[in-house]
Amino acid sequence: MHEPAAPPGEGPAGRFRPRRRRWLLAAVVAALLAQMAFTMGSTAVRQSPTIDEPVYVAAGVVYLRSHDLRYNPEHPPLGKLFIGAGAVLAGARLDASRPVSQEDAGRHLLYESGNDAQRILLAARLPVIALTLLFGLVAFAFARDLAGPAGGVAALALYAFSPDVVAHGSLATLDVPAAGFLLTSVWLLWRARRRPGLGVPLAGAALGAAVATKMSALPAVPVLLALAAASVWTARRARGGGRPVAAGLLAAAGVAVLAAGVVWASYLAVDPRLRWTAPAGVPAVGGLRGLAAGLLPFPEPFRDGMRVQFGFEDMRWTGFLFGDTYRGSHWYYLPAALLVKTPLGMLVLWVAGVAAPAAARRLRPAAPYVLAPAAVLLAAAMTGARDLGVRYAIFLPMFLAVAAAGAGAVRWRWAKAATGVLVLFVAVSSLRAYPYYLPYSNEAFGGPSRTHLYLHDSNVDWGQDLGRLADRLRDRYPGEEVWLAYKGSGVPSYYGIRASDPLAAPPERVRGLLVVSDSWIAKGDPRLTPLIASSEAIDGVGHSITIFRRPAQRS
Predict the structure, then answer these.
(1) How far apart (Å, rounded) are the C-alpha atoms in residues 442 and 13?
(2) pTM across the whole model
(3) Distance separating alpha carbons of residues 480 and 161, to the nearest angstrom
(4) 493, 522 in Cβ contact below 8 A?
(5) In whole angstroms, what is the distance from residue 9 CA to residue 223 CA?
(6) How would you write 514-537 as a 3-class SS string?
(7) Whole-angstrom Cα distance, residue 553 to residue 535?
(8) pLDDT tens digits, residue range 464-494?
(9) Are 317 and 457 in contact (CB under 8 A)?
């Protein structure tokens, strides 16, 4: 007699099907992260130091070697400890006994201490690259919790192909680590709705890590404390426990204490005795800002760093937007810059993701978790005084990648297919820009080669192309006289560039090649503008530097 047939899904093939799906999902995730790792690593190898990097690297090395907090007080130490660890493991040498400014310390470390500058810089960038990849896993896990495996893959793809995340995730800077720790904290709070005993403490630690990396995370703290209370309230109600409101408030207080503890621990890890003398030039800050700096439960170096940041906010910086050079700031700068710097398909998916909770009821509980922190951080950033780049809103591509996963969860016939097509468009746009991710702009604005017409500074030209410039001058213009107006922290002579300063010579003496960082052009310096106007643009390097030919001397 024949045995009865197994019900569908219960035979050997049915049992192996879920395992195959898990392996396929793991393979897709690994492929996306491997692509991102290759892109960031190969980009990091080629780029010279951007403006902020030497300071962070030197500060991190001094923290670890000399246990001295004097450098870069305007940012807490945690992110720089990661950066410095990479440089120290690579054998960076630095004489920290010299009483120099933090900018001089960065230059001394990379170029005057017998170190291989690019090797040390790459080693300092690697911890940030590793953190960026780990935060990609967080984006995947968060979106999978909300919209299933397909949503997780969509979110990870948007994260991995985000030109801004790739650009700043491959640098030894603090923007991506701070935003990534915030994303991690919010994800853990979301999971705390089911397992508050584990999720709440871990979320507090991640929130503390964000604040201990960059003070710009502070506006999100009240939002995350409210989310902590909401998560525990939800968990207590679901289990039928008593006093859910009291439990929620206690959880919020616990998150605050843990976050403050992580900030204190980051300073004590540098100097257990917390020796601190406020550096010269720390501004006296009054009003509510001064009161906040004085009352926050953080170490004195942190509070002095806040005062330094408030001093920066009181300055009038030079901005550049859509060809207009101005002093001060525009409230709409960041939305406008994001419109230029974000792939078109990603913009569509961001809008769809923000709207998705209105159409999909199961996404509504997650909306405050995904959208509220990003909204508060964006509002705070838009009030800032420094119109210097979308890196001040680097949290948006992270949080909205998770939100965009909801677009495929909407019960609309073509939702999943449309999401897949848009993700593919994002990937193509991003890969076409390789390896020039800092100056990326989308196709509506002409791509990376035309970004300098609309934006400046870290959106385009942050000093990253000295090595490429050296190669270009050697290969195409050997022996020619070079006049260089460079905006960055690198030392041109280290890369073999022999050039004079066009701003230090009479205009009639500036002959041959005039090489100008595009951010200098955007700033409209009156000493430089006449020279550029009387020259012919003949070449460009990395979409961040323009090479001009000066007219020949008339006899």
Answers:
(1) 46
(2) 0.94
(3) 40
(4) no
(5) 45
(6) EEEEHHHHHHCCCCCHHHHHCCEE
(7) 12
(8) 999 999 999 999 999 999 999 999 999 999 9
(9) no
Here the tokens at position 181 are 């720790």
Q: What is the 3-state composition of the chain as percent helix, strand, coil, each rounded to the nearest 5?
A: 65, 5, 30
Question: HEC states along 174-240?
Answer: CHHHHHHHHHHHHHHHHHCCCCHHHHHHHHHHHHHHHHCCCHHHHHHHHHHHHHHHHHHHHHHHHCC
Burial code of 502-511, b = ≥16 C-beta within 10 A, e = fewer?
beeeeeeebe
How would you classify the pairing of strands 482-485 and 513-517? Answer: parallel
Residue 452: alpha-carbon gap to chain centroid = 20
| DSSP for 127-186, written as a single string | HHHHHHHHHHHHHHHHHHHHHHHHHHHHHHHHHHT-HHHHHHHTSS-SHHHHHHHHHHHH
> Quick one: pLDDT at residue 345?
97
| 471 Cβ contact partners less than 8 Å away, ≥ 6 residues apart | none
**φ, ψ dihedrals at 18, nearest 5°:** -60, -35
Residue 56 CA to its chain's centroid (Å): 14
C-alpha count within 13 angstroms, C-beta hemisphere, residue 280? 4
Cα(90)–Cα(410) distance, rounded to whole angstroms? 49
Beginning with the edge strand found earlier in the chain, give each strand of the sheet holding 513-517 in spatial order. Answer: 482-485, 513-517, 545-549, 536-541
Query: What's residue 1's pLDDT?
Result: 43
